[in-house]
């Protein structure tokens, strides 16, 4: 049995105040304890999910020389392809056993932000790849917007508190391929223990075994969603903003038992980021005598740069603050 609570976004979107309040309480309680929920009633259709998986499998099956064309120097892996073994969790030397793709924001009516973000990269070999990625990005962004509205109410803020910070925000959709394991991986794992950097993460593909979450007793528990659910978790930015009232829980993707080494694993997280100017200073109503302020004031852009250096995606010399 999974210990991750399950919630229905349909309740928050309904006309019933009672259902809305139930959703807010359930997700609020979950994020103050285990930091993860499985969410149904989101905006992704089955057809879109099926097509996205088909496209990303086609992409990762392309010859390595073709994929390498899409690994762009100097943008810290923020768009396009990142090759196998490149990213490592904070504080680790061994690269994770994964390759991935990044779709970024499709900026509307904001030339300054459009200049700040690298352009999305088009895959010439796959005519549907970019269209399907964009559609998924939009649907996950919409889902995340309502989740953040519920959390804003839970935190005693105006319901639309996050809206202007996430509009045209620096969110990333990251299809990941964990290839078959061909030799003893020594210390490397599919994804080493880490906390996510961003506000919240929406994860497609948490059906299979592999994803584990560290509970408050320090035990690893399996996090398994059903096929119609997204796994959603709190990232470090939201944890900072709320002075750790909402918990950014450490999680990992373990290697399968040897008899299953031969199969690939795919997962697709959407990392909801705000615009770089959002202050992550602890909210006043999350700081009191019992909960002294735990984090320095910082903007989302400054914090992201710090973290990308720690992950090995940006060299210290390339780091910048906007
Ligand atoms: O692949 C997964 O199930 C989770 C991946 C993850 O935690 C991440 O990319 O941050
Ligand atoms: Fe993660």
TrEMBL record:
Q: Which Gene3D superfamilies match?
A: B-lactam Antibiotic, Isopenicillin N Synthase, Chain (2.60.120.330)
The record ties this protein, via InterPro entries, to:
DIOX_N (IPR026992), IPNS-like_FE2OG_OXY (IPR044861), IPNS-like_sf (IPR027443), Iron_ascorbate_oxido_reductase (IPR050231), Oxoglu/Fe-dep_dioxygenase_dom (IPR005123)
Query: Which reaction does this chain catalyze?
Result: 2-oxoglutarate + O2 + 2 H(+) = ethene + 3 CO2 + H2O; L-arginine + 2-oxoglutarate + O2 = guanidine + L-glutamate 5-semialdehyde + succinate + CO2
Q: Tell me, which GO biological process terms does this entry list?
A: ethylene biosynthetic process
Q: What Pfam families has UniProt attached to this entry? A: 2OG-FeII_Oxy (PF03171), DIOX_N (PF14226)
EC number(s) per entry: 1.13.12.19, 1.14.20.7
In terms of superkingdom, the source organism counts as: Bacteria
This one is known as 2-oxoglutarate-dependent ethylene/succinate-forming enzyme
UniProt source species:
Cerina litoralis
């Amino acid at each position: 049995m999974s210990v991750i609570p399950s919630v229905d976004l349909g309740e928050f979107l309904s006309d019933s105040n009672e259902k809305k309040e139930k959703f807010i309480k359930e997700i609020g309680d979950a994020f103050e304890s285990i930091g993860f929920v499985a969410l149904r009633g989101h905006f992704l259709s089955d057809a879109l999910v099926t097509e996205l998986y088909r496209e990303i499998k086609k992409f990762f099956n392309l010859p390595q020389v073709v994929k390498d064309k899409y690994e762009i120097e100097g943008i810290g892996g923020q768009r396009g392809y990142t090759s196998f073994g490149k990213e490592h969790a904070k504080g680790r030397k061994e690269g994770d056993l994964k390759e991935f793709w990044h779709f970024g924001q499709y900026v509307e009516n904001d030339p300054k932000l459009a200049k700040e973000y690298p352009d999305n990269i088009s895959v010439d070999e796959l005519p549907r790849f970019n269209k399907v990625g964009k559609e998924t990005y939009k649907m996950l962004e919409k889902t995340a917007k309502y989740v953040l509205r519920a959390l804003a109410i839970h935190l005693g803020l105006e319901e639309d508190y996050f809206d202007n910070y996430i509009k045209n925000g620096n969110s990333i959709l990251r299809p990941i391929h964990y290839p078959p394991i061909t030799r003893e991986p020594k210390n490397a794992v599919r994804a080493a223990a880490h906390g996510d950097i961003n506000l919240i993460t929406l994860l497609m593909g948490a059906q299979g075994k592999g994803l584990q979450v560290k509970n408050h007793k320090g035990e690893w528990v399996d996090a398994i969603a059903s096929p119609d659910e997204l796994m959603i978790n709190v990232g470090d930015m939201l944890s900072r903003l709320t002075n750790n009232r909402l918990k950014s829980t450490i999680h990992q993707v373990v290697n399968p038992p040897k008899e299953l080494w031969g199969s690939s694993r795919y997962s697709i997280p959407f990392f909801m980021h705000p615009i770089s100017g959002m202050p992550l200073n602890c909210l006043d109503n999350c700081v009191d005598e019992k909960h002294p302020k735990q984090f320095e004031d910082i903007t989302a852009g400054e914090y992201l740069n710090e973290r990308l250096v720690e992950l090995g995606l940006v060299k210290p010399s390339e780091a910048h603050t906007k």
